[in-house]
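Checklist before submission:
- one chain only
- standard amino acids only
- sequence pasted in full

Submission:
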Amino acid sequence: WAGTLWLTSHAAADRLLCGVGTNTFVDCPQCLETSMNSNAIDFWWNWDYDIRVDHSHLPPQVVRKAKKTFTPMIWGTKMPKDYSFFHLGGEYIMGYNEPDQYGPACAGETTARTFGCGEKDYRPATSAGFASLFDPVKAATAWQILVTKLASVAKESGGSVRKIAAPAMAQAAQPEDDCSRDPVLPNATKYCRGWLQAFKAKALTLQCTSLHGRLTNCWDVIEALPIHAYGRSAKEIKDKLHEYHKVFLEDFQGTSGRTKKTLWLTEVTMGTNEAEDLVTFVDDLMNPTTGLQNRQLFGFVERISWFSEWSMGAFTLGSYKPHSYEAEDFILTHCRSVGRRMALPRSLKRRAV
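Returned file contents:
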């Protein structure tokens, strides 16, 4: 299931960086080693600021590369226990995970009648969208506290991290919903479209010091805008990218006093493990004619990472209901960037290792 995509020559800074978002490596350090040795991974992340991988039995060169390509994330309002990630070798840290969605964990009877959970509901937390972050105005104040702390660590302890990415968005860029109401309340919205617009408006009024040590507002400390997109067709994904590009055009162009930013697509898949469908989806998304590898069309997109779990069944997406056989395990190979073989998912009826 390999597909080879080639790009015309562009400046190095214009190259699309490919990666993977996964928790797989915690249970499979050898998978991390394979990924690092493949030369296919420009970056990887795991919804945490800690690598959380026992690398004691991995070759030193693999460990060095894994640390350098790791992009840490501050998932929610809880501050890190330590800031050793500043010294792993990477330059970026990502902000909150999907505060525009309300998705707390449910644990059966233990959490029944709280957070909208039922007695038989068992699900992990899917986003950081609790009351303190779901309201983008409140989130901007929390962001100011976080950025202030990170800037202080950068100044005092040094390290390689000098750039921060905005909170990652799951919902649409527009319209702007009123998300000031606690999402746990009955009939309150659980999804906040336009969250990043409201967050930007408030953050522009707050003072922050960037990780470079520059005094500015709490919006322009940001250098990348990550979003997540799931769809049954590549067109849906590309439409969402274009929508964010349109709404935040001044940020991507660096005009009207804004610092220039890039867009990251850090979670993407189509909710199926039908091999032929996936191959078509990835080709349509990544091809050099109408896809992300066309840097004239999508030069504002700097990074893409497949939503990749070692074992994950297909899931309902919009009106699409997976076939029963799709619920079995599948493997995703990793995406590869310019001049290399590109990422293609592989559909397997049984898990392969």
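Reviewer check: Residues 169 and 227 are 4 Å apart (CA to CA).
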